[in-house]
């Protein structure tokens, strides 16, 4: 009887566990101008074999203390150095914008589930500097 219960528990554990998804953690740094929007991540809906898959899922697991995040969906052509070069893909992007006048350090943690079901936790350390009055850098918006 004890053996039967142990087998049932083991079988239930295997069924409930399901397939394990690959999960990695990456820590990286970004810079931003105070009060200006900067793109932190962009994820296409392409599978490893370059076929189209479901839209990636982005979940904020650590919100910034001195700014805000927005996500945006759009379409882009992948760059030449990407594993699937020149492929039109739907993308999900994350943008950060500090509070006006804030300078210093901020941090964001996002969990990204790609089209193959792999999950990557991105811990992004952001250094926010003073905005330059004549800044003609990348678009001051959330354009992809």
Supply the number of helical segments: 1
Strand order of the largest sheet: 1-7-6-3
Class computed from helices, strands and strand pairing: mainly beta
Strand count, sense and closure of the main sheet? 4 strands, mixed
Rg value: 20 Å
Q: Give the low-pLDDT segments.
A: 1-19
Question: What coarse outline follows from CA principal-axis ratios?
Answer: globular
- Per DSSP E runs of 2 or more residues, the count of β-strands stands at 7
The topology string of helices and strands comes to: HEEEEEEE
> Helicity range of the residues?
10-25%
Mean pLDDT, to the nearest integer, reads 84
Gap from first CA to last CA: 61 Å
Q: Beta-sheet strand percentage?
A: over 45%
Blueprint (SSEs and pairs):
Blueprint: H1 2-17, E1 23-33, E2 37-44, E3 57-62, E4 67-77, E5 88-98, E6 104-113, E7 119-129
Provide an overview of this structure:
The protein is mainly beta and 144 residues long. The protein has one helix and seven strands. The strands form two sheets. A four-stranded mixed β-sheet has the order 1-7-6-3, with no helix packed on it. A three-stranded antiparallel β-sheet has the order 2-5-4, with no helix packed on it. The chain is globular, with a radius of gyration of 20 Å. Residues 1-19 have low confidence and may be disordered.
Concise synopsis of the structure shown:
The chain has 144 residues and is mainly beta. It is 11% helix and 47% strand. The protein is built from one helix and seven strands.
Sum up the structure in keywords.
3-stranded antiparallel sheet; 7 strands; 144 residues; mainly beta; 1 helix; disordered N terminus
């Amino acid at each position: 009887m004890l053996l039967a219960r142990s087998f049932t528990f083991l079988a239930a554990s295997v069924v409930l566990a399901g397939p394990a998804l690959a999960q990695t953690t990456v820590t990286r740094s970004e810079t931003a101008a105070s009060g200006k929007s900067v793109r932190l991540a962009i994820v296409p809906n392409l599978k490893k074999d370059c076929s189209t898959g479901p839209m990636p899922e982005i979940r904020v697991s650590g919100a910034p203390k001195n700014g805000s995040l927005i996500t945006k969906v759009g379409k882009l052509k992948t760059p030449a150095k990407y594993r699937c070069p020149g492929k039109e893909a739907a993308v999900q992007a994350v943008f950060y914008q500090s509070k006006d006048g804030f300078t210093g350090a901020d941090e964001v943690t996002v969990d990204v589930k790609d089209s193959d079901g792999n999950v990557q936790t991105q811990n992004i350390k952001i250094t926010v500097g003073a905005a330059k009055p004549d800044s003609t850098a990348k678009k001051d918006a959330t354009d992809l």
